[in-house]
C-alpha cells in the first residue's frame, strides 16, 4: 500500500484575525472532527453562556478559551482527498511571537490571515517578514471576516494591492489571496452566492495545490551528534554515536565526516533498541551507529557523508535575526548560540542594520537591537561550528540565541563574514581530511594516559611571571603522571619562528604576530593529536587571537591562564593567577582545576 503524502502547514497572522476560526471551520465542513466533538463544544458554550466559536475546536487550553487568544502553536491532523496535513495554528499576539516562530519553522507552506474590516496590522507585516526570513515561499493570504464588510469586493481588492506591495519588498512573490468568512464558511470549503464575484480557489483548493517540498531524505546527510554512549559490561566495547537524522540518509559502510573537526570514519553498524537489525538510517530517525575506527567526538559535531555537499565551517557569521529578549541585544555582551546540538559562546560584533519588520524602515547606526526588532548582524563565536547557508539547507542554517538561560532570539545564517576566518576554516577541514592517522587512535591515547589532550595558553603582561608559572605547571602535571610538554618562548623564537624577524617585532607587527600564532596553533594541533597537555606562553593574548587559535586547532579543549594582578586585554581567562609570586601555592590547586576542566579522569 502506497504511503500518502504529508505536508506541514502553518496558519498565522495578527491577533483576532480569525486563524483558529478558519481552521476550525475547515475541519468541521470537511467532516474531519471526531464524532460528537462539534456538538460538545456547542453545549459547552451554551452551558457557559458564551457564543459558539469555531476557534474553540482548536483552542484547547483553558487560558486560551477564557481570553480568546491562541497561546501555543496547536497541531491538528487533517486529511483531504489528495494528502495528509499537519496544520499548525500559530499565535498572533505579539507576546507569543516566540511560539509563532517555533510553529512556522516546522512548516512547508503558510496561510496568513487578515481581518477584512480591521485591515493590515503591524503583526500582519511582522509575520509576513518572519515567513520570508524562515525561507517559506508558498504563502496564501486569507482575507477573513468578509461578512463584516458585506462581502465588498473593493475592500478585498484594496487589501490585496497594499499587502502585495509589502510582500514583494520582502522577497515573497507569487503569493495567493482568497476572500473568506470563517464564521459563515464562505470560500473555506464551500462556495456561497454571497461572493459570486470570486471565481478563484477556496482555502481547501489552495491547500491541495501547494507543492510538496523535496523529501528530506533526498537532501545531503546532516545528523547533529546528541551524545556518545559507551558500554563496558559483558565484554561490550561499543561506542555508539547517537542523534536524530535531520536530512539525508546513510548506510553501513558509508564514510562519515564530522564537522567542524573534519574527523572521519566508516559506519560499522547501525544501532537501535529492541528492533530488527538495520542497515540504513534516514531523515526523521533517532538512531545511533558505531564506527570502524574509534575517534573521539563530543556533542555538537555534525555528521555528514563524504560523498555529498559539505557544510560550511566558521566562527564569524553574517546572520539575520529576530530579537525577543527582555533586554536589548548589545555589542560585546556574551550570549550562547545554539544550532542543532551545538552550543557555543558568542558575541555580537557588528549591527549592520536594524529593520522595523512592520514598516521595513532600516537604521544603520544603531548600537543595540530592541525587542521585536529584526536585524542583520555579525557574530563572533568562541569556536568554529558547522552549519549550512539558508539558501542551501534551511534546516541547518537556523539558530537560537540564549541570554541568561532564556531563548531570546533566533534567525538564519546567511554567510561567513570574515575572509580570514573563512579561509582558515576551510584549511582546517582540508587538513583534517588529509591527515594521516596511524594505528593508534586518539581514543587509545586518552584511555592509556587517562587524560584528554589540551592546549594551555599562559598569558599576561611582559615580565609578569608567566615563564615561572608555566614551568611549575609542567612539573606539577608531570608529577601527576601526565604527558605534558612546555614549549618556551625562546625555543619558538630560534626554532619554529627563526625565519621571522626578531621576536620583539611580534608585538609591533600584526602580520608577523598572526603568523606566529598560526604556527603555535599548528604545532599545538600536533601535540594534542599525540595526546599531550601542551603548555605555551604568549604575551598579552587577546579575545580575537584566542578565537583564531581555537579555530585552527579544531578543538574545544583550549584553556587560558592569565598571570598578573590586572587583565589588560579583552580576554576572559579560564584561570586568573593574581599572585604570580605565590606560584607554589597555585600548584596545589592544579589537580582540582584540571578535573573541573574535564581534562582528567576515567576515560572509557
What is this structure's SSE topology?
Layout: E1 6-13, H1 19-29, H2 37-47, H3 62-67, E2 74-79, E3 84-89, H4 97-104, E4 109-115, H5 122-133, E5 138-144, H6 153-169, E6 176-179, H7 203-209, E7 223-230, E8 239-244, E9 249-251, E10 255-259, E11 263-271, E12 280-282, E13 286-291, E14 302-305, E15 312-323, E16 329-330, E17 334-339, E18 342-355, E19 362-363, E20 368-369, E21 374-387, E22 398-403, E23 406-416, H8 419-434, H9 442-449, E24 454-460, H10 466-479, E25 484-487, H11 489-496, H12 510-529, E26 533-539, H13 543-553, E27 558-563, E28 575-577, H14 583-587, H15 590-596
Parallel strand pairs: 1-3, 1-4, 4-5, 5-6, 24-26, 24-27, 25-26, 27-28
Antiparallel strand pairs: 2-3, 7-8, 7-14, 8-13, 9-12, 10-11, 10-14, 11-13, 15-21, 15-23, 16-20, 17-18, 17-22, 18-19, 18-21, 22-23
Describe the structure.
The chain is an alpha/beta fold and 604 residues long. Helix content is 27%, strand content 29%. The chain folds into four domains: 6-209, P-loop containing nucleotide triphosphate hydrolases (Rossmann fold); 217-305, Elongation Factor Tu (Ef-tu), domain 3; 313-425, Translation factors (Elongation Factor Tu (Ef-tu), domain 3, Beta Barrel); 442-596, Rossmann fold (3-Layer(aba) Sandwich), CATH 3.40.50. The strands form six sheets. It has a six-stranded mixed sheet, sandwiched between helices. It is elongated. Mean pLDDT is 80; it is low at 60-73 and 92-96.
Amino acid at each position: 500500500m502506497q504511503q500518502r503524502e504529508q505536508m506541514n502547514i502553518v496558519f498565522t497572522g495578527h491577533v483576532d484575525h480569525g486563524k483558529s476560526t478558519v481552521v476550525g471551520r475547515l475541519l468541521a465542513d470537511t467532516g474531519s472532527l471526531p464524532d460528537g466533538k462539534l456538538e460538545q463544544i456547542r453545549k459547552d458554550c451554551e452551558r457557559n453562556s458564551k457564543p459558539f466559536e469555531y476557534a474553540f475546536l482548536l483552542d484547547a487550553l483553558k487560558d486560551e478559551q477564557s481570553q480568546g487568544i491562541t497561546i501555543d502553536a496547536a497541531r491538528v491532523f487533517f486529511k483531504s482527498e489528495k494528502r495528509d496535513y499537519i496544520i499548525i495554528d500559530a499565535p498572533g499576539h505579539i507576546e507569543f511571537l516566540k511560539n509563532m516562530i517555533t510553529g512556522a519553522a516546522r512548516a512547508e507552506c503558510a496561510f496568513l490571515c487578515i481581518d477584512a474590516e480591521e485591515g493590515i496590522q503591524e503583526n500582519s507585516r511582522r509575520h509576513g517578514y518572519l515567513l520570508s526570513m524562515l525561507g517559506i515561499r508558498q504563502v496564501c493570504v486569507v482575507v477573513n471576516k468578509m461578512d463584516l464588510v458585506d462581502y465588498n469586493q473593493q475592500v478585498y481588492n484594496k487589501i490585496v494591492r497594499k499587502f502585495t506591495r509589502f510582500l514583494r519588498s520582502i522577497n515573497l512573490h507569487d503569493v495567493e489571496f482568497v476572500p473568506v468568512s470563517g464564521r459563515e464558511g464562505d470560500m473555506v470549503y464551500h462556495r456561497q452566492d454571497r461572493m459570486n464575484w470570486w471565481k478563484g480557489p477556496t482555502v481547501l483548493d489552495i491547500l491541495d495545490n501547494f507543492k510538496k517540498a523535496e523529501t528530506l531524505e533526498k537532501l545531503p546527510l546532516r545528523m547533529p551528534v546528541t551524545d556518545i554512549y559507551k558500554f563496558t559490561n559483558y565484554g561490550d566495547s561499543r561506542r555508539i554515536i547517537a542523534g536524530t537524522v535531520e536530512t539525508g540518509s546513510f548506510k553501513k559502510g558509508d564514510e562519515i565526516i564530522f564537522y567542524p573537526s573534519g574527523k572521519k570514519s566508516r559506519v560499522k553498524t547501525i544501532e537501535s533498541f529492541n528492533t530488527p537489525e538495520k542497515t540504513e538510517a534516514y531523515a526523521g530517525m533517532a538512531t545511533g551507529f558505531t564506527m570502524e575506527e574509534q575517534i573521539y567526538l563530543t556533542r555538537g559535531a555534525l555528521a555528514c557523508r563524504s560523498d555529498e555537499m559539505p557544510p560550511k565551517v566558521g566562527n564569524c557569521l553574517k546572520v539575520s535575526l529576530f530579537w525577543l529578549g527582555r533586554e536589548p541585544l548589545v555589542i560585546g555582551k556574551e550570549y550562547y548560540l545554539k544550532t542543532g546540538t551545538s552550543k557555543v559562546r558568542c558575541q555580537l560584533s557588528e549591527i549592520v542594520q536594524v529593520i522595523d519588520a512592520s514598516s521595513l524602515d532600516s537604521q544603520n547606526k544603531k548600537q543595540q537591537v530592541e525587542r521585536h526588532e529584526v536585524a542583520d548582524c555579525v557574530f563572533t563565536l568562541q569556536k568554529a561550528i558547522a552549519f549550512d547557508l539558508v539558501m542551501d539547507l534551511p534546516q541547518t542554517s537556523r539558530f537560537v540565541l540564549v541570554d541568561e538561560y532564556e531563548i531570546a532570539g533566533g534567525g538564519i545564517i546567511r554567510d561567513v563574514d570574515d575572509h580570514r576566518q573563512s579561509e582558515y576554516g576551510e584549511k582546517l577541514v582540508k587538513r583534517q581530511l588529509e591527515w594521516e592517522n596511524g594505528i593508534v587512535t586518539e581514543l587509545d591515547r586518552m584511555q592509556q594516559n587517562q587524560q584528554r589532550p589540551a592546549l594551555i595558553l599562559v598569558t599576561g603582561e611582559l615580565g609578569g611571571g608567566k615563564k615561572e608559572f608555566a614551568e611549575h605547571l609542567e612539573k606539577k602535571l608531570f608529577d601527576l603522571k601526565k604527558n605534558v610538554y612546555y614549549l618556551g618562548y625562546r625555543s619558538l623564537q630560534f626554532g619554529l619562528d627563526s625565519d621571522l624577524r626578531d621576536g620583539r617585532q611580534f608585538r609591533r607587527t600584526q602580520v608577523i604576530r598572526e603568523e606566529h600564532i598560526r604556527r603555535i596553533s599548528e604545532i599545538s594541533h600536533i601535540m594534542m593529536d599525540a595526546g599531550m597537555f601542551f603548555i605555551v606562553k604568549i604575551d598579552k593574548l587577546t579575545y580575537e587571537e584566542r578565537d583564531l587559535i581555537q579555530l585552527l586547532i579544531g578543538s574545544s579543549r583550549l584553556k587560558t591562564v592569565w598571570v598578573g594582578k590586572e587583565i589588560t586585554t579583552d580576554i576572559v581567562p579560564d584561570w586568573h593567577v593574581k599572585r604570580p609570586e605565590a606560584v607554589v601555592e597555585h600548584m596545589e590547586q592544579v589537580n582540582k582545576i584540571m578535573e573541573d576542566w574535564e581534562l582528567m579522569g576515567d576515560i572509557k
